[in-house]
Amino acid sequence: MTGETGGAAVSTGFVTGAVGDCEPLPVPPIFDLIRKQGGISEEEMYDVFNMGCGFCVVVPPADEEAALALLRSHYPAAQRIGRATGGPKEVRRA
After folding, report:
1. CA–CA separation, 41 vs 85, rounded Å?
2. Residue 10 near residue 91, CB atoms below 8 Å
3. What's the total number of domains in the chain?
4. Can you give the CATH number for the domain in which 34 is found?
5. Which residues of 44-71 are buried (b: 16+ CB within 10 A; e: fewer)?
6. How many CA atoms lie within 13 A of 65 on its CB side?
7. Is the whole-model pTM more than 0.85?
């Protein structure tokens, strides 16, 4: 479990590589306001802010469905947002 601001799971070494290979999460409107008012690129926004993903749980693929069922019993919108790759220390967006 990680509080996901600025790629915490990867930056701490918990996950060595990750790919966001699912539909992107909706970005709260406040981030669009910050981007426009600050003249900040979308890439920098994703590097600096969590852009709507505040908490992640990393589980083995075999445990994905059970974990989602448990999470959804408390937060119905819980969803898979990517996968750990074991690759370079980076987060790629599909």
Report:
1. 27
2. yes
3. 1
4. 3.90.650.10
5. ebbeebbbebeebeeeeeeeeeeeeeeb
6. 1
7. no
C-alpha triplet 68, 91, 72: angle, nearest 5°: 10
Q: Burial, 35: exposed, middle or buried (Cβ in 10 Å; 0-12, 13-18, 19+)?
A: middle
Tell the residue number behind the tokens 């539909």, with chain if given: 23
Alpha-carbon gap, residue 50 to 10, rounded angstroms: 13
**pLDDT of 15-69, one tens digit each?**
545 556 666 677 889 989 999 999 999 888 877 776 767 777 888 889 999 999 9
Which domain does 64 fall in, by range? 2-93
Q: Quote the pLDDT of residue 48.
A: 79
H-helix or E-strand spanning residue 18: strand 17-20
Backbone φ, ψ for residue 85 (5° rounding): -105, -20
The answer to whether 41 touches 32, Cβ cutoff 8 Å, is: no
Q: What angle do CA 28, 18, 87 make, to 5 degrees?
A: 160
Contact assessment for residue 10 and residue 17, using Cβ atoms and an 8 Å cutoff: yes
